Structures are given as C-alpha cells and as structure tokens.
Amino acid sequence: MKICFATNNKKKIEEVKAALGPKYTLVSLEEIGCNEELPETGDTLDANAFQKARYVKEHYGVDCFADDTGLEVEALHGAPGVYSGRFAGEPRGDERNIGLLLEKMSNHSNRKARFRTVIALILGEKEYAFEGVAEGEILDKKVGYGGFGYDPVFRPVGFEKTFAELTLEEKNQISHRGKAVKSLIEFLSQRKF
Questions:
Q1: 10 Å Cβ neighbour count for 90?
Q2: Domains along the chain?
Q3: pLDDT digits (tens, 9 = 90+) for 147-163
Q4: Looking at the annotation, which residues are catalytic?
Q5: Using CA of residue 57, residue 59, residue 61, residue 67, what is the dihedral sign?
Q6: Sequence-distant (≥ 6) Cβ neighbours of residue 124 within 8 angstroms
Q7: pTM score
Q8: How does pLDDT run across 84-94, given as a tens digit for each residue?
C-alpha cells in the first residue's frame, strides 16, 4: 500500500519507514510534488495534525497521514506542548529550543515530562486519529547525539539512556511516535483494500 506521510522532516520519515516495514510504501511530500510549508496554526496537536493532512488531501488528492508532536513538561504546565517546534521562536532550531527549555527548568525539581504524538489519517473521505505517549523526565544537560528535537534531554521512564542514545529500533519500540504508528499500522492491517 502506498501512502503519503505529510512531513518534510527526514528524521521523522526515517523513523516511520522503519516502523511501517516493507508492507507499505511511504511517500514524502517532496515525492508528491508538495514543496510548500504545510499550515500548522491550530492550538492543539489534533488540530495541527488534521490541518496538515487535510491540506495534502485537498491540494494533492492523495491519501495521507500527518502527525503533530509536543513535549509536555509538568513543571511548565504542559509547555511547550503544541509550540514545541517553535518554543524559542523563529527561525526554528533544536539547539535554541533545548537551551530555552533547560533555562526554564533550572529552578524546578519536578522534571516529569511526556512526549505526545497525534497522527491524523485520511483515507478516501474518512478521517481517523491515533495517539501515542512516552512518559519520562527532562535532564539538566544534553546526553547523546542521535534522534532530533528534545531527544538529548528526554530520558524515558525505565531507561538509563535518553532518546538520543537509543538506537532507532529501541526508540521506535517505546516512543510516542512509535506507539502512534503502531496503532496506525494495526488499523491499516485490518483494512481490506
């Protein structure tokens, strides 16, 4: 089955391709000729995911899914949340976002946080949503070089390593996106084409 993942983030595509396996052919926005920035003006993860998926379906006529992910930090009342990618403003940058997060967390002993991903899927005229959550904590400094985003400062519950230290396979087993993609795959595998 061929399906478009409505993102320009090559690391996300790599993660999801690994999780989907050979039964699905994942095509990128670039491969369907979509080179513009997708709209992302919602104030929730659900709203942003569906806004992106609907844009692709409407303008390119392709069945697709889009995701939105947020890091929700308990001591910061759920921030940065839906604004995780642009936490430190424009231009977007992982280093600046991590720097601001560590600065805001410097006086907090409660380090609990979670990553949450919402996947919006559009097949034909129908829409579906899938969610995944990874609980963990924010470290006081970066550890590891893999992954992307806040991975070097996020240590999942039950692990001694950050997301940035885990292999792609390990991360996909426990990550928010991995869990949401697993739900997506289970749903797709039960469908008759």
A1: 7
A2: 2-189 (3.90.950.10)
A3: 889 999 999 999 999 99
A4: 68
A5: negative
A6: 63
A7: 0.88
A8: 999 999 988 99
Q: Scan for tokens 């991995």, then name that residue.
A: 178
The dihedral built from the CA positions of residue 148, 140, 92 and 6, taken in this order, carries a sign that is positive
For 131-135, which contacts have Cβ atoms below 8 Å and span 24 or more sequence positions?
131/179, 131/180, 131/183, 132/175, 132/176, 132/177, 132/178, 132/179, 132/180, 132/181, 132/182, 132/183, 133/176, 133/179, 134/174, 134/175, 134/176, 134/179
CA distance 159 to 46: 28
The two structure tokens encoding residue 68: 């939105």
Nearest to 73 by CA among 97, 56, 50: 97
Percentage, residues of the chain above pLDDT 90: 76
Ordered DSSP codes for the chain: -EEEE----HHHHHHHHHHH-TT-EEE-TGGGT--SPPP---SSHHHHHHHHHHHHHHHH---EEEEEEEEEEGGGTT-EETTGGGTT-SSP-HHHHHHHHHHHHTT-S--EEEEEEEEEEEETTEEEEEEEEEEEEE-SS---SSSSTTGGGEEETT-SS-TTTS-HHHHHHHSHHHHHHHHHHHHHHTS--
